[in-house]
Amino acid sequence: MSTRLPSHGRLIDRSAQVTFTFNGATMRGYAGDTLASALLANDRMMVGRSFKYHRPRGVVASGAEEPNALVGLGQGNRFEPNQRATTTELFDGLTAVSQNHWPSLDFDIGAVNTALARFLPAGFYYKMFIHPQPFWKHVYEPFIRKSAGLGRAPDSEARDADTYEHFHVQTDILVIGGGVAGLLAARNAALSGARVLLIEQTAHWGGRAPVDGGTVDGAPVDKFVEQIVSELETMANVTMRLRCMGAGVYDHGYALGYERLTDHDPDAPGPRHRLWRIRARRIVTATGAIERPLSFAGNDVPGVMLAGAMRDYVVNWGVAPGRRVVVATNNDDAYRTAITLKQAGVDVVRVLDARAAGGGALMEEARSLGIRVDPGRAIAKVSGGKRVKKVAICNQDGIGGAREDLSCDAVAMSGGWSPVVHLWSHCGGKLAWDEDRAHFRPDPDRPPLGADGRGFVVTAGAASGALALDAVLDDAAAAGKAAAKAAGHSPRRGKTPRGETTPEAAMEPVWLMPARADTPLRMKSWLDFQNDVKVSDVQLAAREGYESVEHTKRYTTLGMATDQGKLSNINGLAILADALEAEIPKVGTTTFRPPYTPISMGAIAGEARGEVFQPIRRTPMHDWHERNGADWEPVGHWRRPFTYLRPGETVHDAVNREVKNTRENLGLLDASTLGKLVVKGPDAGRFLDMMYTNMMSTLKVGKCRYGLMCSENGFLIDDGVVARIDEDTWLCHTTTGGAEHIHAHMEEWLQTEWWDWKVHVANLTEQYAQVAVVGPNARKVLETLGGMDLSKEALAFMEWKDGRIGEFDARVYRISFSGELSYEIAVPASKGQAFWDALIEAGRAFGVMPYGTECLHILRAEKGFIMIGDETDGTVIPQDLGLSWAISKKKEDFLGKRAQQRSHMTDPNRWKLVGLETVDGSVLPDGAYAVGEGVNANGQRNTVGRVTSTYHSANLGRGIAMGLVLNGPDRMGEVLEFPGTDGTVFKAKIVDPVVYDKDGEKQNV
Amino acid sequence: MRHYSAFAVAREALRHHTGWERAWRSPEPKRRYDVIIVGAGGHGLATAYYLGKNYGIQNVAVIEKGWLGGGNTGRNTTIIRSNYLQDPSAAIYEKSRSLYEHLSQDLNYNLMFSPRGVMMLAQTQNEVRGYKRTAHANALQGVTTEWISPQRVKELVPIINLDGPRYPVLGALWQARAGTARHDALAWGYARACSAMGMDIIQQCEVTGVRSDNGHVKGVETTRGPIDCDKLGIVVAGHSGVLAEMAGFRLPIESVALQALVSEPIKPCMDVVVMANTVHGYMSQSDKGEMVIGGGADGYNNYTQRGSFHHVEETVRALVETFPMISRLKMLRQWGGIVDMTGDRSPILSKTPLGGCFINCGWGTGGFKAIPGSGWGMAQLMATGHSPLTEAFTLDRFAEGRFIDESVAAGVAH
């Protein structure tokens, strides 16, 4: 039985009782408890089920390494599966449910898998369920899927009730881990004057040293921790955070901290998690060590626990996980558990020390307390279903013939300690095998390298492989100083605190207990408790040739559970090495990947969700559009009105209305989203000659020219009107979606290729509001507003001029994308709404209506103007679009010129732009292909063209379309067939792309 | 080769599974082979398998620097689809997808091919138009796809948020016969079948040089000695440029890390694969219960197979917006793989300037789905000198400007 002790419990406050529920049952704990300690205090030994066999599972560890005690926490919009009970701080009202069972934790149908375990070894599913073929999808997989997964998914409509945020910080030194090593390293680093950020994943400073005992400079460890924490708190250059885990270390000193702000107090205001995005000159990992389980039969029965964890439960939380405990070990540290238990009044039935010679001083101390120690002995088997009932003991050096049964209700096991090397390894730090302690530790000669070719991570304390208190402090003191020095600061000399603790005798590696356990025992010796991987599974993988440690992992799923093998990996690879008759370091480890323990998706996403998921860019007239029926369309980060809906109107009707009105009266388009890049400098003309296919350097001041931009590969990437503002200034209009990447494209060439050219590029898109005033009444409305002369003589087509319109400073471009008389007028963004209002007001007399992007498209399609993204798709060159006239023949070079000389580009048989007119006047389906004769070598229908733009034209009363057709311009009048996806065949005639006002009379009035 | 079946597993269970033989042999390299394939990833092993199966060429070695299937075959997000726009792409991916349907039976190894359906969300008008165009193209290519409404999207994916304030879902391109498979099993299944045909799979053997005589390949230098061959296939995604340099030619390829991650396992909540290209992220749920999430490629060239964080942030942000309930799931693990990027984002399966030397590379971010089809076409090319599946994917196309650009469906915002 596991119970709360009357004594001990350094982390709990017995005066503050807390109520929580587990599977609906109300239980009590104390403030300072973890959910795991509180469950144990309530004698809840079994807390979950394993993944594959649905075996009963109990708490096995006390921290981040816990593989078993996973629960669903919270309710409704705060429900979260797979939370570790060992790292969940208890609070009043906490609700937890166990996972992976049906119908209940105690009675689980899935546990039948345990009985079938023999038929379900590692990788069984690769060998079964093969026939008949349709059965995998329809029978086997649905069954397997249903039984897989751990916790239940949050509700499908659940919207996380909490918020999250990111912090971006730079620091000289990041210290990860607030145990004695981290604290001392942080202090020594900070004394140099360096900025230090110290983070600790638990709610307490000091780590496990206070539990393990010993003294620092003659005083108890708790005292030392208290002193050094208060010293650090007074230092202005030190930032400290509890409940903040070092989650990952990345290139160039980049690291992630995962701070859990309100998990322990869900009603507190503010974000739940905060992701620290840290850039550090040097990182000190003081991440401690994790104890290894021992591999004996029945080591997965609830009540079998790591010895160090059992000590934690007694010392930290005043909980005894059993009344009669058997301890099994291969090292001296477990004796500390035996001694602690005994002193707390727990019956320590036996210590089974696998070492033939037993231990050192700690063993003697245990014996002196009356604890019986059996050297050379091992656990043959633990019996019990949902909790430990008895242990059969045997010789370690044997096959498992039982000598004696010991009745007990808990087992403490220790296979030695492994440094937490995850963060060291994330970014390429290499490991060395320590033969004496049988663990991998960071190899200080092969650290993760920064941009300067030097190591940027230093380890401190147990994370370096230094396990005894004196060694821990010496190592951490040096690490702090070394990090400060490497970060460019001068560490201060000073005395290193002296740690003292009982010396330990050497440990002996024990990878299997007993050493020559027979097959039935190995089939019951668990390596990975959550995923149900046993010693026999790893041996099977090796036998079948899955010899690489990565093959073994993937074949058996060893180390792939939510604890990512924190308990199982070293034991597993030792078994693999043994099976392969290879040395452990030769077998190596699998790759350590971020995060150290799982972090919430919410924290990764941060604040950016809902409306602010990506910033919405708004033109100065955005709100007016919103008020006037805008049917929005996302275009890049902007939204543009697709059309303006009037009450009762369909989208189709609204578009037709806008199209007719703009052709007949007056339309206004908010063109503010079009990119406006200013290119300026003595070399700007030369630069633009390289960027555009046209000659831009010869453009006269005051004139505009339609320009095309190609990629290096010759494909058309953007178009727009370029205006020459003065001798060394050009303004380049880009497409709405193109502004940022064309700006970046220009900068890339300037910075990497023509870095010595004197050119600046600035993106002024948002500095101007721009309105296209379009239609037969365009000039009239502007004249009504008064100001500059906009007559045909004063401002001819393809000219621009600065001046005043009404009360507004304006730059007027006489350009047209519709074929109508058209002015595009730029005013300062701050005046955009007022200018728009003035146009609407003055325009009433002239039938003004705003129009949206769909009307824009139709107007341009009627005129045969191409649209980037419609007629182009990254495979089209200007020559395909009848735009050869816009390609300078005089220039020596421009981006894309050489590419366009390649054989496929100059092939006369290319798909080229034409108009398409349906025989029956209907609208061609978007994206339809024109079919040719027969099929190609791969059995696909041959095609000869495709539709690139297709609309209903209200002006012409029928469908209009453009398309790319093989040798199209030479095939005028030919009728092509376009099958729809539903089998309907559309017939369309090849015609001229310009179907409205062919001679351009309307725009030149 | 011992046949795998439920009966075999049951029989072995009675003797504690002590009778299973090696899935593939671990031989010493011979002095000479008819064909050497460099790279025991999925594409290399599939090439070897179809050389043996379709052309009777079984004196083959597959040489691997590390462990078989350890590159991108074991690092991808296992999506299999063939709803490509351009004819040559649709041909090879559809061949591949159709081979996947019967591959478990063909190899006698359960690859868990799960044709659960893949949907590509349209969240802008441009995407709507792009995917409708793809649907038209697919109909003529013999690839069954369908444009579906937002309501149908919601029926198929109950956890999706159709009405996000930024990018509401406007519909999707749906390929019902697309899906996922167990990636490692593909490499293992091919390796086992190749080994059973007598081919040698030589792991832990790095090629250090390519030997040639008079413009024709003669063999390779390796860390385990020289090995002769008549024909050489280079199939080493991520390091293609390095091998090409040994063979004396250059490739139009950049190598970048592609990022992926998984959540902790949860009970089934999503039965199909969803790709959201506007916001950029894709997600499916593995049979183990993890949400498998693919993100973007790092913005800089490198060879380190590590995770970086910036793309993970973007991807997770996009997916939390698309599937709000995942906000309270946790990221279990992130990783990166090095992918070959060509100028047109399409692969290269081609003869090379060195006689008898062939290359298969440049699969970019989408190679896993292509493995069986790629191996089929590559084997045909190596055995006969020509394959309709590979003929558009030559190395020459970059010199000719004959690009096969698949990014076009995404288009450009206007």
From TrEMBL, chain A:
The keyword Cell cycle does not apply. Keywords: Oxidoreductase. Residues 484-503 are annotated as: Disordered. One of its GO terms (molecular function) is sarcosine oxidase activity. It comes from the Bacteria. Residues 172-423 form the FAD/NAD(P)-binding domain. Residues 524-606 form the SoxA A3 domain. One of its GO terms (biological process) is tetrahydrofolate metabolic process. The keyword Oxidoreductase applies. Residues 912-997 form the Aminomethyltransferase C-terminal domain. It holds the Pfam family SO_alpha_A3. InterPro entries: 2Fe-2S-bd_N, FAD/NAD-bd_sf, FAD/NAD-binding_dom, GcvT/YgfZ/DmdA, GcvT/YgfZ_C, GcvT_C, GCVT_N, Sarcosine_oxidase_asu. PANTHER family: AMINOMETHYLTRANSFERASE (PTHR43757), AMINOMETHYLTRANSFERASE, MITOCHONDRIAL (PTHR43757:SF2). This is Sarcosine oxidase subunit alpha. It comes from Cribrihabitans marinus. The lineage of its organism: Bacteria, Pseudomonadati, Pseudomonadota, Alphaproteobacteria, Rhodobacterales.
TrEMBL record, chain B:
PROSITE patterns: RHODANESE_3 (PS50206). Its main location: cytoplasm. The keyword Flavoprotein applies. GO terms for biological process: tetrahydrofolate metabolic process. Its EC number is 1.5.3.24. Its cofactor is FAD; FMN. It comes from the Bacteria. Residues 35-79 form the Rhodanese domain. Keywords: Cytoplasm, FAD, Flavoprotein, FMN, Nucleotide-binding, Oxidoreductase. It catalyses: sarcosine + O2 + H2O = formaldehyde + glycine + H2O2; sarcosine + (6S)-5,6,7,8-tetrahydrofolate + O2 = (6R)-5,10-methylene-5,6,7,8-tetrahydrofolate + glycine + H2O2. InterPro entries: FAD-dep_OxRdtase, FAD/NAD-bd_sf, Rhodanese-like_dom, SoxB. GO terms for cellular component: cytoplasm. Belongs to the SoxB family. This is Sarcosine oxidase subunit beta. It comes from Cribrihabitans marinus.
